[in-house]
Give the backbone structure.
Amino acid sequence: MIVQLRYFASIREAIGTSTESATTTAATLAALREELIARGGAYAEALGRGRAVRVALNQTMSDESAALSDGAEVGFFPPVTGG
């Protein structure tokens, strides 16, 4: 399936792009994140399991157990603090 990926804030800066299309066999957001981490380099650095990363599926905050579907939009961003 093909999904649209969006990266925000420091994740966008680390990866060097704000959006991309990706072909994936991942069934869940967690599996997709693992596929991206497996790319290595900036993806592993920005999305690694030790990093605080929030995920949205089709513009709704989601748990990583959420199921993916063809054409889904997935957003990755760091937690936001206010003050």
Notes: The mean pLDDT is 94.
